[in-house]
Write a structure and sequence with these properties.
two-stranded antiparallel sheet
Length: 156
């Protein structure tokens, strides 16, 4: 393997992992009037996801008590929901940009860890060529891991 391939490998792997997302189940019925088909023209952004409704009346009802309807929405499947106070919403809005980086940063750290381990195994073949790259990846892995741990500690 040449130096370019070693330098590009972690970047390509990271882009592939970050670009791969599980397809979200599409919402087809109104969460308020269950069973009614949605209108793609009537929606609201809630927690970074679009929620569709059959009419404006249902949209208004949802906005009054969103937690009441989240259980029936496929885009929130698996999310742990609880009754939120106004303080919870303000805190989430304040940190939503940083919190959104936690998952990609964790994936990036994992990819760097795998690349560092792989280079560690390959050191036996060409120690002189691979050792500097292994050291750089190890430092990048430590930094990414520390930033990820800090972000989880502060915003989770």
């Amino acid at each position: 393997m040449n130096r370019r391939a070693l330098a590009v490998f972690p970047v390509v792997l990271t882009v592939l992992v970050l670009g791969r997302q599980a397809p979200a189940e599409e919402q087809t019925v109104c969460p308020v009037m269950e069973g009614e088909p949605i209108s793609k023209d009537v929606f609201v952004e809630y927690s970074g996801k679009r929620v569709y409704f059959c009419c404006d009346s249902c949209k208004a009802k949802f906005l009054e008590e969103p937690d009441k309807y989240l259980h029936s929405l496929p885009q929130f499947a698996g999310d742990v929901t609880r009754q939120k106070t106004d303080e919870d919403h303000e805190e989430k809005d304040e940190h939503s940009g940083a919190a959104a980086l936690m998952e990609p940063l964790g994936i990036c750290t994992l990819v760097l860890l795998v690349a560092t381990s792989l280079l560690g195994f390959l050191l036996k073949r060409n120690r002189k060529l691979l050792l500097p790259w292994h050291q750089r990846l190890a430092v990048a892995t430590l930094v990414a891991g520390a930033v990820h741990a800090l972000s989880v500690f502060l915003w989770d």
